[in-house]
Amino acid sequence: MNFTSNNLITSKNTHFILRTLVSNSAIYPLVDIYAIPVEITIVLGDTEMKLSELMELGKGSFIELNTYEDNNVKLLANGKLIAYGIVLAIDQNFGIQITKIVD
Fold first, then answer.
1. Which one of 58, 68, 76, 95 has the minimum C-beta count within 10 Å?
2. Over the stretch 4-25, which tens digit does the pLDDT of each residue have?
3. Please, how many CA atoms are within 13 Å of residue 89, restricted to the half-sphere of its CB?
4. How far apart are CA 72 and CA 74, in angstroms?
């Protein structure tokens, strides 16, 4: 297989660029891209409140959230929006079913 300095790997609407170093006719990957840790965050909604309201919060307080289109949640990877989904409960576990991938 002949590699150039940039190789595109495509997997279900997700594109990764794997940069390689070519030296003495050998290819040395700079990093194992699949081993890079990614922090995943699910955002149910958001809201704004005054500092005085925040200071009044205590155990049992209720905070109303603005929800997203079609009650989807946001899926963030390292703080960047990558998808929307819906929350599912299976037995006693919660998960997210992806409904839209962000381009």
1. 58
2. 333 333 333 333 334 444 444 4
3. 2
4. 7
